[in-house]
Every structure is written in structure tokens, then in C-alpha cells.
Amino acid sequence: MRLILVLIALFTALPACAARNLLVMGDSLSAGYGIRPEQAWPSLLQQRLGEQRLDYSVVNLSISGETTAGGRSRLADALRRHQPTIVILALGANDGLRGLPVTQMRANLEAMTEAAQKSGARVLIAGMRLPPNYGPYAQQFFATFGDIAKSRRTALLPFLLEPVAARPELFQADQLHPTAAAQPLLLEPVWTALQPLLK
Predict the structure, then answer these.
(1) Is 174 a catalytic residue?
(2) Is there a catalytic annotation at residue 77?
(3) Could you say which of 86, 95, 154, 193 would form a disulfide bridge with 123 (CB–CB 3.0 to 4.6 Å)?
(4) Are 129 and 84 in contact (CB under 8 A)?
(5) Which among 27, 30, 119, 177 is annotated as catalytic?
(6) pTM of the model
(7) Strand partners, 156
(8) Domain 19-193 is in which class?
């Protein structure tokens, strides 16, 4: 009888040893548009975590074409289902390309950040830039990511595409989506920004 009780106690404790979830909420840049899913930087992040013997499971809920409004509508369910320890918010590019109001994007990202933090997760915001021809809108757009990270005290990666932005050969024919060869380069600054959160 005592042996049975010990075994029950051991099995009951097993979930506590399960991998912690790292949730990625992004758009096509994180979903691996035009390449195989296993080539995308979130999959490479999972490999890196394994190599470093860090017990995290990457849950990539990125969707091509996603806006901050779409991400906001999905986040509550994602937090409830996956109970992540870390959330990477890599949204906003489609808001910018469509010229949606920056105030709207800010409100969505702030709400997502607050919800993730209230759930107990640490947050990394991955920012984005727009081409210079977007004028003052591009400046307001880019500044928004840093402003939210500062006000909400989250980690910040200022520009997700920084390592490849000036290298057209690392983009697909649409000149919007990075190639498979670009993904390891994208991973490095993500990894650097993420490391302080991997406690």
C-alpha cells in the first residue's frame, strides 16, 4: 500500500516537470510564409532551446496576414490553453502595410502585453519598421513598439528584420518575406533579447 502511495505521488508530480511553454504570436514573418514550417525562426528557436538544455516548448500560433487586432482576439484563449511562461509578440507589420491607425495598433499591443503579464508570463515585443516612403507614419509606427516596451517594462527587440533588411537576396520574390537562408540570422537577435527571460 505504501509503495502505491509513493507511485501516485510521483506521477502526480510529473506535470510540474513538464516543459514550460513559450508562445509566439506573430504574422507571416513568424509563421514561415513561403518556406517549410521547420525552417522558420520559431522552429530554429526550439532547436536552440534544446541544444542549450532549456526546458521550453515553443508554441507558434503565428498566422500569415495577422494584424494586432486578430492577435488580440486570439490571445485570451491561447493564454488559457497553453499557460505560457514567455510570450513573444511579433505583430504589427500588417497593420503598418495597410496603413491602419497607429493608435489602434498601440491599443491592441498594450492590451495583449497587459493580458500576458497578468497571466504571469514574461513578454518580449518584436518591433517592425516600414519603408521610408510611409513618411511620418513610419516614424510613429516604429516608435510605438519601444514606447509600449518601456511603459510595460517588457523586453524589446526593436526590429525583427534588422539582420536581413538591407540584403534583398535574403528575401523571397515578393521582397517582403525572408527566405529559409535568412531564418538563422533572424534567430540570433531574438535569442539575445530572449535570454534574460529564460529563467
Answers:
(1) yes
(2) no
(3) 154
(4) no
(5) 177
(6) 0.90
(7) 125
(8) alpha beta
